[in-house]
Fold each of these.
Amino acid sequence: MQSRRDFLLQSTVLTAGSLLLPSFTYAPKKTQHFGVQLYSFRNEMAKDAIGTLKQIAALGFKEIETARSQKGHYYGLSPAKMKSVCDDLNMNLKSGHVHLDQNWQQTMVEAVESGQEYLICSSMPSKGQNTDNYKKVAEEFNKAGEACKKMNLKFGYHNHEYEFETENNQVLYDVLLSNTEADLVHMELDLGWVIVAGKDPLDYFKKYPGRFPLWHLKDMDMNKKVSTEFGKGGLDIPAVMSYKKASGVKHIFIEQEEYANNALESMKHNMAYLKSLS
């Protein structure tokens, strides 16, 4: 099955070993609300967007993050209709994955109409695994952040594993963090791709406190380098959840790209897993 990483960008796969995180006890507050990245239900959303949203709401999800699809950013629905459906289901359309491209102005206009808060660039807008390109992209991100701010939106970036490659002993993702303004570029840390890259999310929470208001909570099969159900992969979920405050996270979106059976059953498992941590 094609992963979202491959769907968005042809990139060199970075081979990494398993990462062992320290173990902590996590006791989530009963008011913890989890969101879902709709790419997890990409096939279902393409066939029946409203029906799938009803199923997602029934699982207990309270926040939604969209992903660009062949039917647009809102799966064939208008931005206002997407907002209305989510409101009716007691879900908050909070964020959306988009491209920073020639249609950027229209993308922002649609986001305002949808009522969402964040626009997240889902992959690097230009090729070049080197510090020069990442510094150039950082400037583009700062400008995009400024444009979003003027429209009462927040701009952000979602990583894969390739951003953690190095040039001249510099981690490219660190170059991006160091050259973007924290109040303009809100990082969405995909925890699954971080560990695939051989890095420790906790190190980033400590080194860049408060820089990660959004997460993709994703467990990964470290042998196959694909996502899996919670508790079956290499991410120590209780450990990272214990560092929520340090990371600055406000919104946690569950994303799973591959499944043992199907998306609905995997998400039932994931929600039950999180409930078991309390």
Amino acid sequence: MVIHHKKLVRCLIYGGLLAGLVYAFFPVLWMFFASLKSNTEIFSLPPRLLPKEFTLRSYKNIFFDPVKVRFFLNSYLVALLVTAFSLLVAILSGYSFSRHKFRGKYILNLFIIATQTVPPITLLIPYFGIVVALGLYNTYPALILTYMVFTLPYAILMMTGYFNTLPKELDEAVMVDGGSNFFALWRVLVPNAVPGIVATGVYTFLLSWNEFLFALTLTKSTEMRTVPVGIQMLMGQHAYEWNEMMAMGILGSLPILVFYLLAQRYFLAGMTAGSVKS
């Protein structure tokens, strides 16, 4: 009786997980098949998931249009640079908060947490004025510096928390051997903090890749637009290119999916296992 009860509970759990997976994945599946339809067939009644005639015209219109390809190049450039700079600053700051005591540490940490409570839309006009005053309007630095304001607080907090989980014996072993703080950070702690770094990088890249409001406000030329803004630009005055919008949405989701699949093993890996001998 106990065995049958456990099997029933397991079936209910797996059934619930499967239902949740279908519920979450179905819109993506619908978007994918919509990208393979003609713009007319998307509005056919009754609606159908699979297209009557599969066509790759929407993807061809994207890949063979230099303007639309530029949207992806801009998003890649901005997101990768924001991720790299944010991780560099977050690693250095997280190490300082985790391993050192200094005056104003608590207040500074509280300030970093407080920045996360401010709705980004309230900062749109101030940032626009600052960017224009600095002569950075419609440039990559405007987007990179602005995005880092939103990604850095979370990245610093996450790296601080992860460094706190690493045993201080690692640092002490390096100091005993005559190593410096810099050596201890980059040669010992950072290799052991790979799961935290990867998780922080995925979040930072995702936030930068999907950002729409500031990318729309801080740029004006078509050559500077990113993917989210490029999708919005497909909404014409008299007609919407829904199949191309769906295709750009699918292509825009691929970098995050590939990034996650490649880095998935680092999320669960115990990088500190066996690093300190008892």
